Amino acid sequence: MDINLEMLKILTEADGTCGNEKEVRKIMKEYIKDYVDEIYTDKLGSLIAKKSFDKNFPRIMIAGHMDEIGFMVTGIDENGFLSFQPLGGWSTNVMGAQRVTVTTSRGRKIIGVINSRPFFTLPIEQRSKLPDMKDMYIDIGVNCKGEAELLGIMPGDMVTPYFEFNTMANPNYLLAKAWDNRVGCAIAIDVMKSLKDEKLPNELYSVGTVQEEVGCRGSKTASYMVNPDIGFSIDVGVSSDTPGVNKRDAVGELGKGPLINIYDGSMVGHSDLRNFVIKVAHELNIPYQFSYIPFGGTDAGSMHINLEGAPCLYLGIATRYIHSHAGIIHKDDYINTVKLLTEVIKRLDENAVKKIISGE
C-alpha cells in the first residue's frame, strides 16, 4: 500500500487535547466518509464510522484516540504569563523552552513558549534536578494580562505542542507531534479504505475516541454504543531502540512490525484473539513483536469490560520519544499494521468469533 503522507501531516498537525477533539474529528470524518455506510458520534464526541452488510453479523471495533497530550490554560497573571494544567502524562524534562499553540474558544491560534530558566542562573544544588511543574508558565509575548485577554485567551483554552510533520533523512522514518494517537486514527481510516470493496462477514466500526489521555473515557461511551464482539485498540508503543533505554522497560524496535501487547495496566490481552492474530501474521509473513507495559493502558482497557465484555487486543506502533513534543515512527510498521488488521478482519466471521469467545 502507499501511505498517504498528506493525511498523516494533516492529522498530526491538527490540535486536539482531551475534550477538544473537534478539529481532529472533522478531519477523520472527511477522510473516512467514502468508505463507510454510516457515521455518527456519541454524546462525548467520539466518532463512530460503520461498514455493515448484516446487523446480525458479529461487531468488530477498531479504536484510535483522537486526543493528544497537551495542556489547559488555568490563569493569566498581571504580566500576561499563562499558568496551565497538564492533560495527559508529562515530565518537565521535555517541556522547557518548547513552543506551544494556544487555541482560544473562538479558534484563534497563538504561538507561545514554555519557560526555561538559563542554566547559569540556577543554584548549584538545583542544576541536576527537574523543574517543578508549578514553576512553569507559557510566555505568549505580551506586556500584561489585558493584552492577553484582548487576544481572546481565557482559562480553559487548549494548549498543544507546536511541531511540524517531517519526512526524515531516511524517508522510512516520519517525525511529528501527536503520533499518540493520530497514528491510530490514520490506521482506522486506512483499514476501512483497504476493505471498501470487500463484502465482510462482520460489521466493522472504526472509532476515533475522545479523552483517552485522561482515563480512556471516550472508549467507554463509544463501546457502549457499538457493543463490540471483538475489539482492537491501535496506539503507540514505547520503542527500545535508542541509546540509554533499558530493553526490560520498553519493548519494540522501529521497522520490526506491529506490537502485539500481552498485557498492560488496564488489560490482559485476550489469549485466543492474540493467537488468532498471530496465526494470520504467520500465514502472510507479516512481521510482529510482542510488547508488555506494566502500567498505563489503552482504549482496549475500557472496551473489553463494556456491558457483557468482549475479547480485545491492543496493537501498537513502536514510537520514539512518546509523550513529548515530537515522535518518530517507521513506515513499514504502519503498513504492516494496516495489512495485519485488514486480513484479520476479513477472517472474523461468526464461527471464528464464537471460537475466540468460547475458547474452543
TrEMBL record:
Active-site residues (renumbered): 212
Keywords from the UniProt entry: Aminopeptidase, Hydrolase, Metal-binding, Protease
Binding site for Zn(2+) 2: 180, 213, 323
Co-factor requirement: a divalent metal cation
Cofactor: binding comment: Binds 2 divalent metal cations per subunit.
Keyword Ion transport: no
UniProt-listed Pfam families: Peptidase_M42
Keyword Kinase belongs to the record: no
InterPro entries: Peptidase_M42, Peptidase_M42_aminopept, Peptidase_M42_dom2
Binding site for Zn(2+) 1: 65, 180, 235
Gene3D superfamilies with a match to the protein in the record: Peptidase M42, domain 2 (2.40.30.40), Zn peptidases (3.40.630.10)
GO terms for MF: aminopeptidase activity; metal ion binding
Gene Ontology process terms (BP): proteolysis
PANTHER family linked to this entry: AMINOPEPTIDASE, AMINOPEPTIDASE YSDC-RELATED
The family this protein is said to belong to: Belongs to the peptidase M42 family.
Name of the protein described by the UniProt record: Endoglucanase
Organism: Romboutsia lituseburensis DSM 797
Lineage: Bacteria, Bacillati, Bacillota, Clostridia, Peptostreptococcales
